[in-house]
Inverse folding.
């Protein structure tokens, strides 16, 4: 079961990478030369995004999934990217634990850290809190919907508070991205 799950996950990852590399239907011959004596950068890990994993969190075999993703007999992922919810009731006190999807993300991250020594956590926001945007209630940045300039400092404090709340949960953020997809 575990090996089959790992195989399926690798197939999906391969398909995603293969299809994202194709820009058009033209075939181009390419030679790749690897010089093992030359280093250009250090690879610091491979990870996954864990937003909206309610099914995973509530599944009776969730420990098997954790092992398949982060464990020594699984993919051994070492980076987890999660979301920063824009629809939080009190943006400055961060009572975000009550949001079900956040509980799922936090549980996965805590388990991966405790059981598999995962230590790189990245958080991304899809949007500033809706009440601070020019079109309140909209997640998108289309049609001129943007963070109002009078809330720039609020948004910076919001991200800072999120980081501090994560620390209280035993999760030290490696990086934070204030915007997921700039074109939206």
């Amino acid at each position: 079961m575990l090996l089959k799950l790992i195989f399926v996950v690798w197939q999906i990852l391969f398909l995603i990478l293969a299809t994202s590399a194709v820009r058009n239907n033209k075939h181009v011959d390419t030679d790749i030369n690897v010089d093992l004596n030359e280093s250009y950068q250090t690879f610091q890990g491979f990870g996954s995004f864990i937003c909206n994993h309610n099914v995973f969190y509530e599944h009776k075999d969730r420990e098997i999934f954790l092992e398949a993703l982060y464990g020594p007999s699984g993919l051994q992922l070492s980076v987890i990217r999660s979301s920063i919810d824009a629809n939080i009731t009190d943006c400055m006190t961060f009572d975000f634990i009550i949001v079900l999807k956040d509980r799922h993300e936090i549980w996965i991250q805590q388990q991966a850290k405790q059981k598999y020594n995962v230590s790189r956590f990245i958080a991304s926001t899809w949007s500033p809190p809706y009440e601070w945007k020019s079109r309140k209630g909209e997640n998108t940045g289309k049609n001129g919907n943007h963070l109002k300039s009078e809330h720039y400092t609020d948004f910076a404090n919001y991200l800072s508070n999120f980081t501090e709340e994560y620390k209280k949960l035993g999760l030290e953020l490696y990086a934070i991205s204030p915007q997921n997809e700039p074109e939206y």
Notes: Residues 49-131+155-184 form one domain. Residues 8 and 20 are 18 Å apart (CA to CA).
